[in-house]
Amino acid sequence: MIHNRVRVAELRAHLGRTGSEPGSGSVSVCGWVHALRLQGRMQFVIVRDGTGLVQVTHRRDGGPLEAELQALTPESAVRIAGRVVEAAQVKLGGLELVPETVEVLNPAATPLPIDDRTGPEQRLDWRYLDVRRRPAAQLLFAVQTTLEQGMRAYAYAEGATEMHTPKLMGTASESGAEVFELGYFGRSAYLAQSPQFSKQMAIAAGVEKVFEIGPVFRAEPSFTSRHATEFTGVDVELAWIDDVEEVMAFEERMLAHAIGRVAEVHGAAVAEQFGVEVTVPTTPFPRITMAEAQEVLRAGGWDREGVKEDLDPEGERALAAHVRRTTGHEFVFVTRYPVGIRPFYHRRAADDPGVTLSFDLLWNGLEVTTGAQREHRHDVLLAQAAEKGMNPEPMRDYLNAFRYGCPPHGGFGMGLGRVLMVLLGLGSIREATFLFRGPNRLSP
Asked: pTM, whole model, 2 decimals?
């Protein structure tokens, strides 16, 4: 038997149609039992699919339909066929479905493990139930899809090539201990902390603009609202640049385009579900050097001892507030970070060798991006690695990419979950991730 499924949002176009009418096809709704009101004379079942809710209304008559509806449990997967009728008294779109057949495709056990009062950590234990029960969670992933589409569309329009780089590495992809080690046929391998080295090899391979949207792994024992041990990174690398400014300009235009698409497609729904207005940022974004930022912040009481080289979360929030007051902008690029807190492959400024041609992008006080112009000269890379006490031998394959004519280049890495956090006004990256991974969470 062929079932012509109708989504809840499309039901009004099917008023009065039933499967018994010649040539009409069956009017079937497939979804989950959202709520049950089983009264003395009437049975009301609210069915939910990905587009909305519909009320199924049945007058008790002692027949088989009554028994089938009475046996339903919340969150059971059902297919209900019947007649769509006007019902002005029904708040769910002024329609109701008068059932003719009820098919339980998969009954839900009772009681459910979560409800509307369940705390966030337990909801993560049952994330698939949590997402499907909450329209806001469903919307989040629709927004994520549109956001990624917007980023890809901009990158494609700029002539960028999408690459898929390996996540198994023979050596740590960046300096530091924040790396997952695993056995690999009798030797050690590592999960990639970043596609950084692979992106640069693509530049050396003659791919002039490269981007990737894929998984990133960080073995950070951090339990903050913005850290995860696995997340989705948006990475871009651009060849033949004259200055790091070209990298920042690419990113701000990419973000403005992608956020514009979200505003166009989901703006009204985001306002309804999250209470947030999706505002398309103007370009260019404000820029401020790290030295200038620290001067501004210390004048306001941050880091009174003057010992911090980098911005901590408090400093990032305070700087963002300053930028909003003085420019009205939610974004700010913080540039020219000190050599001591940047990787060996960041290029150093010719006018001040103590700083790098690098940047972080803050959005409403949250760091969402790190980027830089890269050092593309082999001899300089070796010297900078040695200065940081690094052994070049494990990085031989990477360093070899710069021995045979690698052009000047730069790029950035953006955390997709952090962008979604700010875009939708979420309190934690856990909410912006389908199945979150952190130091104490490897399931479901």
From this structure: 0.92
